[in-house]
Amino acid sequence: MSAPQAPKVLNRAPGERHGQRVQLGADEPLRLDCGMELGPFTMAYQTYGTLNADKSNAILVCHALSGDQYLTGTHPVTGKPGWWHLMVGPGLPLDTDRYFVIGANVLGGCMGTTGPKETNPATGKPYGMSFPVITIRDMVGAQKLLLDHLGIDQLFCVTGGSMGAMQALQWAASYPERVFAAAPIAGAARHTAQNIAFHEVGRQAIMADPDWCDGDYQSQGKHPRRGFAVARMAGHITYLSGPALHRKFGRTLQNRPGVTYGFDADFQVESYLRYQGSAFVERFDANSYLYITRAMDYFDLVEEYGGVLARAFEGTETRFCVISFTSDWLFPTSENRAIVHALNAVAANVSFVEIESDKGHDAFLLDEPEFRATLAGFLNGAAEHRGIKRP
Amino acid sequence: MNAGDAAARLRSIRIDLQVVADMVTPESRVLDVGCGDGALLDYLVHFKRVDGRGLEISQAGVNACVGQGLSVIQGDADADLKTYPSKSFDYIILSQTLPAIHDPKAVLLELARIGRRAIVSFPNFGHWKVRWHLLRHGRTPVVDSPTHEWFETPNIHPCTIKDFIRLCDKLDITIERAISLSHWGYPRPSRLPRTMANLLDRHGLFLLRKD
Fold this sequence. Notes:
A: about 400 residues; Rossmann fold; 8-stranded mixed beta sheet; about 35% helix; B: 8-stranded mixed beta sheet; globular
């Protein structure tokens, strides 16, 4: 499937750090859930491995809230390995000798895809808060245009953790014929009240920072660093688990013999969180954080299908593998099991594994051998059915 | 898969699993409840070309299955069968799992609902060796593993071939075929409803249907 007119591949400026970029939605704008239209817009993406002749080996990896298109290799901004470098590469579960792996920055993101940070062509100024509120379905709609551009009719697999799992589920529900296999990891079919509550804390921290300037901080040469760092600190706690925090830090003090009877970062865990907050602020856009958390809050596949999740997957031929982690309290096993039960109800082909881990929600990013073996096995089994050759 | 793998698979399947597999029509839809490490499911997928799914309670078992490309869900027969639609599988198999189930009666009804046919196999608690063990030692026989004590065996509901036939009668479940495995592992058709199988045979295997 190719777009009616070849979309423009944007030239990269010297020092350009967003990898590949393409302009999409020029012929027909993307119709957003909020009722507005967006187009043309830019999509930044990275690919790893080689697309085979019949274009049957493409895996789309959907990133989470703070992720981006850089799955592996050195990240151009942080200088650290990409967020899924343990999973994507030659001989790894997402074997780039066998599969063509695509990472794309989500709509509303801040790593090159059109989002609140980018310039609105209509005004010549950054979108800021004039950027339309986007949804998970909008993100997936934009990714579909990217696949059209790449000429990929059917993904071999769509996968991702957390918000990436939401996108994978949305893909399977909205475009079942374009998804051979789907592996939503540590996800949910709807964002829970508790998760919305945590997001709201983060957003309020950003908006309470005077440097946020009602979202117009870019024009004023500011960035709501303090509020945004607090948002990240609060969020970061939810990605871990009590036992993991205890194991890593306990009540250990930060380079000092005793408490200081003050409000410095006496404890190592405080120092760690402050570092996480300030490092994140340097690489991420505060408004983007507002928009993406909102998209997650609005995600409710149950409601989209009339209150019965199973209807989202009626007649599906997609092979599913749902994975959760025992210590994940943000996207707990019960939420993942609800997806499995809905898939069972339509007799879908589904595997489900709950991985024993004390690392909390972030376990999908970390070195969990059982998790890696499970995903590798699922992909391998599906690849045999799809007739994708071994390297 | 090369011929060597195939031969290894053929050799590796236990006799009771082989008898179950022989009851399954090729290219049918199969759900194996309590599929363990996937030995039977793998055999069925490769040699009977079935569209096979599994349900298994242990993480190690599920990981082993999914890791080899089988479609298996981590779950509990007592809790998760209700999510499957009626008559959604040609065969639903409960192999060696029956005594470990909390509510065998409810699960048996679920099997009969979900599968057009259900295949149930279990170790026969009425076997003469079990009876002899109780008579001679005065201690509770444990059939799953010689190392398990009565207080730690997962088999909380051991049953005899006779018990099982009575339960099927009570639940209005039709027994289409019954096979028992002798003490030495030879399969033989059981003469129903009353038979010496309950005393002499080690395993009962039943093909069930409920209209």
